[in-house]
Design a protein that fits this description.
Length: 328
């Protein structure tokens, strides 16, 4: 399958977003005075919650985690595993009564608190169950991109403009505001991953790997040419490392081997082709780097839980249901 506008060579993030398309939406605009608290249940499959602190501070308590996180102006919190979590002002006082009202673009949440003020957007990144599997496997349960202040790269002009646009669209009544917010949310996901990979203490997984200058060439190579029969010596050579050093450092930062990552990239590519084209299973197998259709079928079922044929049938059924829903 040929891309009309291929991503630049070495642009692993664009390659990832080609493989795992993500859309977005803003659900709530919160304007709170302390004391306040937001309880968030675990997210549905295919939904990744996010929160953007436009001004003020907040404390995150993730259910099941012993470590709370302190958020400040410009911070973007993303929870790729969709875990239940609580956001609060940190005072320990019962939250002030809050109200909700629907605007043209979002649900506006306000309270009667008179203490320190919080301005925060709460939304969701949306992806298919197939693609969510890749995100859950290679991203931490939570991470924060520091948009400003110590500990982060500093608020860039681009991020300031993006967040400013999101604030204006969520607060206004302009024509197309809902669609604009959805588009800005998708852009926020890509921009947050870009900034996270530059953090001094990048989260584990793909972000930590991308932020390691010596290992990044191997990451880019696998995303650029997933169908190539990469060997450990070749990948280590790209990074100017010995085979043993490459294996140790790669697994230390990713938490998985390079073979695991390459297989998941290949299976995601194959799933996309099976779900959107009439290409034969053999053609899909060859595109994913398998010369044997039988070997591909075994690998696909081991990773995806179903055979390529069953996956294709399920994808066709989902499309039919979606089309019926759209015309109902």
């Amino acid at each position: 399958m040929t891309e009309a506008f291929p991503s630049p060579h070495g642009d692993w993030l664009s390659r990832l977003l080609d493989l795992v398309p993500v859309s977005g939406r803003v659900d709530h605009h919160c304007l709170f005075g302390a004391p306040w608290q937001l309880d968030n249940k675990a997210s549905a499959t295919g939904t990744i919650p996010y929160h953007v602190v436009l001004s003020g501070t907040a404390i995150l308590h993730e259910v099941g985690s012993a470590n709370d996180l302190h958020l400040r102006t410009g911070d973007i919190l993303i929870l790729p595993h969709g875990s239940a979590h609580i956001l609060h002002d940190g005072s320990g006082k019962p939250p002030a009564p809050a109200t909700q009202r629907a605007t043209a673009t979002v649900m506006l949440n306000e309270n009667q608190g008179t203490g320190d003020r919080l301005d925060m957007l709460c939304g969701s990144f949306l992806l298919s169950p197939t693609h969510e599997r890749m995100v859950r496997a290679y991203f931490p349960s939570r991470f924060v991109v520091h948009g400003s202040g110590p500990g982060g790269p500093g608020m860039t002009d681009e991020l300031a403009h993006l967040l400013g646009l999101m604030r204006r669209e969520s607060s206004g009544e302009a024509l197309g505001g809902r669609a604009m917010l959805d588009a800005l949310s998708a852009a926020l996901f890509a921009y947050a991953l870009r900034l996270a990979s530059r953090e001094k203490e990048a989260p584990v997984g793909l972000l930590a790997l991308a932020g390691h200058a010596k290992l990044a060439p191997a990451l880019s190579a696998m995303f650029d040419e997933p169908g190539r029969a990469w060997t450990l010596p070749e990948l280590a050579g790209r990074c100017n490392m010995s085979r043993a050093t490459f294996i140790r450092q790669f697994q230390s930062r990713l938490g998985r081997t390079s073979a695991d990552l390459l297989t998941d990239i290949r299976m995601t590519l194959a799933a996309n082709q099976l779900g959107s084209s009439s290409a034969s299973t053999l053609a899909v197998a060859e595109s994913a780097g398998y010369q044997s259709e039988a070997a591909f079928q075994r690998a696909f079922k081991a990773r995806m839980g179903v055979s390529p044929a069953a996956f294709r049938r399920e994808a066709a059924s989902r499309r039919a249901r979606d089309e019926q829903s759209a015309t109902a």
